[in-house]
Write a structure and sequence with these properties.
Blueprint (H helix, E strand, L loop, with lengths): L16 E5 L4 H12 L4 E3 L11 H11 L3 E4 L7 H6 L1 H22 L3 E5 L28 H21 L2 E7 L1 E3 L12 H14 L4 E5 L5 E2 L1 E3 H14 L6 E3 L5 E2 H12 L4 E5 L14 H7 L7 H21 L1
Parallel strand pairs: 1-2, 1-3, 3-4, 4-5, 5-10, 6-9, 7-12
Antiparallel strand pairs: 8-11
The structure holds NADP nicotinamide-adenine-dinucleotide phosphate (NAP).
Length: 326
């Protein structure tokens, strides 16, 4: 394969035409807010009801209208362990198709830069901790989220191939588990933090003496506050010009049993927790090495888990009250 030198144009935010797929979603809305703070004037946010990014004709039309100089690809089918386990086919197909098409048409339309967003679920199940980018290919991901993780890892291969063959400035970042105000609290599809907050608040309201949790409580996770994640994504879009993958995390690690104790304290739930070990634990440990993000584009997380959880719980309480009042 020929290896072209990646063509790098400096990012000048007020002059860019940004296409942010998934820009109305949880992470996307914070990314769009950051882009506006940076002075971006043109930000195109396609919605799935008008533009299905799994369909080539829709993606071609979108690029024809938007003519972006810079693409941030966040659109995805996303969910917790339960949703991944129920819909492995949809998680694989939707994410693979969206990635393939959004990057291919970025190339065809002459976009100058493409930033793809992967996931920590792409890492092998038993990666040595902390996970280094060089370990991404050293094994198969944890079974419950492998179709999602591998579909997102295709983006990295495609970005590297396009950088090598076409000189496209295509970069890929791999965020850890994210959380924050605006997160998805639907019990069918939510991730672990909103699921645990909801359980504690409901148990407190109903005066329940105990709450049953999925799995053993022993796995560990790393969490990054969504505003910090948006800052990292925008910094990478601005400053990172290398197809090597980059982790985006907070550098902390906490067991699920510790997380639930913290959430119980912050929601003032005083009951007991019972672990249902017939339910899957997911990956045993998750903790990213975040050195590369610091070195390459100066990103370091700022929000502590406790502060981030406090803001998330406050948001949910206010949001739920608003919904109830409406
Ligand atoms: N949340 C996390 O913990 C986490 C962790 C690591 C990485 N990530 C990555 O971050 C990105 C954003 O995740 P998120 O949590 O913000 O998800 P989200 O809130 O579910 O947002 C995803 C967005 O994708 C769009 N979308 C889905 N299917 C589409 C389709 N067929 N055509 C067009 N648009 C479609 C949706 O647009 P509409 O609103 O118009 O339907 C939605 O706004 C994803 O790439 C995810 O893999 C997330």
């Amino acid at each position: 394969m020929p290896h072209l030198k990646t063509v790098v144009h400096p990012v000048v935010w007020p002059q860019e035409r940004d296409l942010v797929t998934g820009g109305a979603g949880f992470v996307g809305s914070y990314v769009v807010e950051k882009l506006r703070e940076k002075g971006c004037r043109t930000i195109v946010i396609p919605r799935s009801r008008d533009c299905d990014l799994r369909e080539a004709a829709d993606v071609e039309r979108l690029y024809g209208q938007a003519r972006p100089t810079l693409v941030i690809h966040l659109a995805a089918r996303v969910g917790g362990i339960g949703a991944n386990a129920r819909h492995p086919g949809k998680f694989f197909y939707d994410n693979a198709m969206m990635g393939l098409l959004v990057l291919e048409y970025a190339r065809r339309s002459g976009a100058r830069k493409f930033l793809g967003v992967g996931t920590i679920c792409a890492y092998p199940k038993l990666t040595p901790v902390p996970f280094r980018e060089s370990d991404l290919w050293n094994g198969y991901p944890e079974e419950t989220n492998a179709p999602y993780g591998l579909a997102k890892k295709l983006l990295l291969v495609q970005a590297q191939a396009y950088a090598a063959e076409y000189g496209l400035n295509a970069v890929t970042v791999f965020p850890t588990n994210l959380y924050g105000p605006g997160d998805n609290f639907d019990p069918e599809t939510s991730h672990v933090i909103p699921a645990l907050i909801l359980k504690c608040l409901q148990a407190k309201e109903a005066n329940l003496p105990q709450v049953t949790l999925w799995g053993s409580g022993r796995p560990s996770r790393e969490f990054l506050f969504v505003k910090d994640a948006a800052e990292a994504i925008v910094l990478a879009a601005e400053r990172h010009n290398d197809p090597e993958p980059v982790n985006i995390g907070s550098g902390m690690e906490i067991k699920i049993s510790g997380l639930i104790r913290l959430i119980a304290r912050l929601t003032d739930y005083r009951g007991e927790f019972v672990y249902d070990t017939s339910k899957p634990d997911g990956q045993p440990r998750r903790h990213l090495d975040t050195t590369r993000a610091k070195e390459r584009f100066g990103f370091a997380a700022r929000t502590s888990l406790e502060e981030g959880l406090r803001q998330t719980i406050e948001w949910y309480r206010a949001h739920k009250m608003a919904v109830g009042a409406g």
